[in-house]
Design brief:
With about 150 residues, this protein is of the alpha/beta class. It is built from five helices and six strands, in the order βαβαββαβααβ. It has a single domain, classed as P-loop containing nucleotide triphosphate hydrolases (Rossmann fold). Bound molecules: adenosine-5'-diphosphate and magnesium ion. Magnesium ion binds next to helix 1.
Length: about 150
């Protein structure tokens, strides 16, 4: 099983969008997939509820429920993290993950917030020991320049 954590403390950067797309991709490839939603807003599980039952199956799980356990016989577990995650909650999710994906939007505010988040993430033992694979995803980047860069004097 490969456990992929989609995380960034910044809200609205595309965590649930990427989590649901990844889950759907692996399911369509014929892999067994669990999608665990750790956000009380439950966007991923709501997406799963709205998904046609004729599509390849994805097992939805509410990560916040007590006694949460990932099924053992599964190819991919996708963990959708909540906004604002830090401290012990972040460490607990990172412990489960082999791969960590960090979506980031191309705005100055989002990039600053993400830089702070990555700084915190690098302090988590499993990450600092390089026991996880780590990647950022530039999400919603316009195909062509000019990108919006606010003037410094604003
Ligand atoms: N690549 C994308 N293209 C278009 N819309 C996107 C994309 N990524 C995210 N969105 C939209 O942006 C909003 C926030 O995304 P969401 O996945 O809910 O963020 P998060 O889970 O990080 O809070 C949603 O309305 C989502 O549909
Ligand atoms: Mg979300």
């Amino acid at each position: 099983m490969r456990t992929i954590l989609i995380v960034n403390s910044k809200g609205g950067c595309g965590k649930s969008m990427i989590a649901t797309n990844l889950a759907a991709y692996y399911a369509r490839e014929g892999r067994s997939v669990a999608l665990a939603d750790f956000d009380p807003q439950g966007s991923s599980l709501q997406w799963l509820e709205a998904r046609s039952p004729e599509r390849p199956p994805i097992e939805g799980m509410a990560g916040l429920e007590s006694g949460f356990r990932l099924p053992r016989q599964i190819d991919y577990a996708i963990l959708d993290a909540p906004a604002g995650i830090r401290g012990a909650e972040l460490t607990a999710l990172v412990r489960r993950a082999q791969t960590i994906l960090i979506p980031v939007l191309p705005s100055a505010t989002d990039m600053r917030a993400t830089a702070r988040f990555v700084r915190d993430l690098l302090l988590v033992g499993k990450v600092s020991r390089k026991e996880t694979r780590l990647a950022t995803i530039a999400n919603r980047v316009p195909e062509a320049p000019p990108w919006h860069v606010p003037p410094r004097s604003c």
